[in-house]
Amino acid sequence: VDIYSKRDLAIKVDVAADGSARVRQALTVHNGAEEHGNDSDTIGYLTNLSVNDWLFGLPVGATDPRLRAPSGSEKVTEHPDGFGHQVLATTGELPAGDTAELVTEYSLPAGTFTTPEGLEYRTYLNPQPLQNPINMTIDVQLPSGGCNAGPEWNVSGDSAAFTGELARTEQLWIRCPAS
Q1: Measured between alpha carbons, how far is 107 from 24 in angstroms, rounded to an integer?
Q2: Cα–Cα distance list, 49 to 41, 42, 72, 104, 144 (Å)
Q3: Interval 3-25 mean pLDDT
Q4: What does pTM read for this prediction?
Q5: Is residue 82 left, alpha or beta, with left meaning phi > 0 and alpha meaning psi from -120 to 50?
Q6: Nearest Cα to 119, choosing from 16, 6, 9?
Q7: Contacts of 160 (CB under 8 A, 6+ apart)
């Protein structure tokens, strides 16, 4: 059923002048298997029920993490990923034709994006091997204008936006001079 899943990931980052940030990630998942499989099967190759383990990696230093999952999902847990990071996790079912939204939020402490030259927001895109790429948007609100960024960004005043597919490993950056 995963080959029929469509995913959109919208990330909103509010960076403060002290280099701290508040982050919100909204993952929308649609099970497009309504024309395929069998509604009465719940396991096996003929089912069109999508059973998902949803995992959200947290950056080092993240505080106050929260995950809102669709009703009927299992209890949200937080645990190590084995590579030095924490993960918020839940499991849920998505019937054919249904759409679910999962929202995770966390804060990053002062100094996270501070450099001697000012502020530097940097993120790494690291796709999963999925049949359909994830459509992704990242909106970053900065404390002031005058920032420069990699060519992937659309910078306007004190904000920057990235839109694309999460289909390749990539590093995105924005630099703002000290005020």
Answers
A1: 9
A2: 8, 6, 14, 24, 47
A3: 94
A4: 0.90
A5: left
A6: 16
A7: 121, 139, 140, 142, 147, 149, 153, 154, 174
